[in-house]
């Protein structure tokens, strides 16, 4: 019996691996007591730990770095502080085809008028007076000595004695003479008088010698003389808040009155005749309605003196589709005839 119990205990110790074999004779206890005691010891002592096997360490693969998205700057340049991984190709222009940079030219400095010294002024006036004998009109007279001022446009001003001021063109001809009291006279390049201004009176000379004298009066009226016993008195006229010009003409001691409206173009005043009466538009239909068929018309003044004189400048239509065109040529011809008659009669 004793050997049988020993075999059982040996088997249990081998199976459990933590029990110690105690001879039953020494303990003096029964087999059941021994089993209970062994179970209590097993609970109190921790089980023997077996040596742990080394676990294989799985190394994770190296993290793949994702390329950071680069924000391209204008012109393909990387942002500041970063270098481009790929060098930018540099385009080189072939020799002989390089485009020069445009150069901004500064406008030339505007010349200012220059006042000559006394010596320079004397020399300049002597140069202008050398060939004056070959000129005409006032240009034949030598220029007086004085202080010379040269203007950017090439004109010259001579400040002579007695308050006289003489404006000379770049070619040496006299353009204007001003006196101390305000009287002025202008001259054409041929030396003839163009206009005279004295106080409130202005005299205009035409190319053929005709003369117009205009006098400004205190009541804002203008007295105009166009020849012997010829002229008109012009005064402003306001009717229903509209301004007109009223002219009273005198021709061969006969007076008549006309009213005009004023318009300006290019700084020149133009006067349009205002009729005394207006009619309904149907009354004027003959002027703007075309004729049923064109009318061939021959004027009877082909050999008149005025047409011989102005024929190279004025040629009437040979055929007229409307009355307005016929009336236009009639008015042009009549005005040219009157101009030549005035020139021949009044000079």
Question: What's the SSE blueprint?
Answer:
Layout lengths: L1 H15 L7 H4 L3 H14 L69 E2 L2 H11 L17 E5 L5 E5 L4 E4 L5 E5 L5 E4 L5 E6 L2 E5 L5 E6 L5 E6 L2 E10 L2 E10 L2 E12 L2 E6 L11 H4 L1 E7 L8 H6 L8 E4 H24 L1
- Given the helix and strand composition, which structural class is it? alpha+beta
Order of helices and strands: HHHEHEEEEEEEEEEEEEHEHEH
Characterize the overall form.
elongated
Helix content: 10-25%
**Could you tell me the strand content as a percent range?**
25-35%
As residue ranges, the low-confidence spans are 16-28, 69-76
Describe the overall structure.
With 347 residues, this protein is of the alpha+beta class. It has four domains: 2-41, no CATH class; 114-197; 217-278; 286-346, no CATH class. 22% of the residues lie in helices and 28% in strands. The chain is built from seven helices and 16 strands. It has helices at residues 2-16, 24-27, 31-44, 118-128, 285-288, 305-310, 323-346, and strands at 114-115, 146-150, 156-160, 165-168, 174-178, 184-187, 193-198, 201-205, 211-216, 222-227, 230-239, 242-251, 254-265, 268-273, 290-296, 319-322. The strands form two sheets. It has a 14-stranded antiparallel beta sheet with strand order 1-2-3-4-5-6-7-8-9-10-11-12-13-14, with helices on one face. A two-stranded antiparallel ribbon has the order 15-16. A hairpin with a 2-residue loop joins β7 and β8. The termini are far apart. Mean pLDDT is 77; it is low at 16-28 and 69-76.
């Amino acid at each position: 019996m004793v050997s049988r119990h020993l075999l059982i205990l040996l088997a249990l110790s081998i199976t459990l691996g933590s029990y110690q074999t105690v001879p039953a004779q020494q303990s003096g206890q029964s087999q059941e007591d021994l089993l209970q005691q062994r179970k209590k010891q097993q609970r109190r002592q921790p089980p023997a730990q077996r040596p742990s096997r080394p676990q294989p360490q799985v190394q994770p693969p190296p993290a793949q770095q994702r390329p950071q998205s680069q924000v391209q700057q204008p012109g393909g340049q990387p942002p500041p502080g970063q270098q481009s991984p790929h060098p930018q190709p540099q385009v080189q222009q072939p020799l002989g085809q390089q485009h020069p940079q445009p150069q901004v030219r500064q406008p030339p400095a505007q010349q200012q008028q220059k006042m000559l010294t006394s010596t320079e002024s004397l020399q300049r006036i002597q140069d202008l007076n050398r060939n004056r004998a070959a000129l005409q009109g006032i240009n034949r007279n030598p220029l007086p000595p004085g202080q010379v001022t040269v203007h950017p446009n090439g004109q010259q001003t001579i400040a002579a004695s007695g308050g006289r001021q003489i404006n000379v063109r770049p070619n040496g001809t006299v353009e204007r003479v001003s006196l101390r009291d305000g009287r002025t006279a202008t001259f054409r390049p041929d030396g003839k008088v163009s206009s005279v201004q004295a106080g409130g009176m202005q005299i205009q000379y035409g190319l053929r010698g005709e003369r117009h004298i205009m006098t400004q009066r205190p009541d804002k009226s203008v007295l105009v003389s166009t020849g012997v016993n010829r002229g008109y008195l012009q005064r402003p006229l306001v009717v229903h808040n509209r301004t007109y010009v009223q002219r009273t003409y005198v021709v061969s001691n006969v007076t008549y009155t006309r009213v005009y409206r004023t318009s300006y173009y290019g700084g020149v005043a133009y006067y349009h005749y205002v009729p005394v009466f207006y009619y309904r538009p149907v009354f004027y239909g003959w002027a703007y309605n075309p004729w049923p068929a064109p009318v061939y018309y021959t004027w009877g003044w082909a050999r008149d003196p005025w047409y011989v004189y102005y024929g190279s400048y004025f040629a009437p239509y040979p055929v007229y589709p409307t009355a307005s065109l016929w009336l236009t040529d009639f008015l042009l011809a009549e005005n040219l005839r009157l101009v030549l008659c005035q020139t021949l009669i009044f000079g």
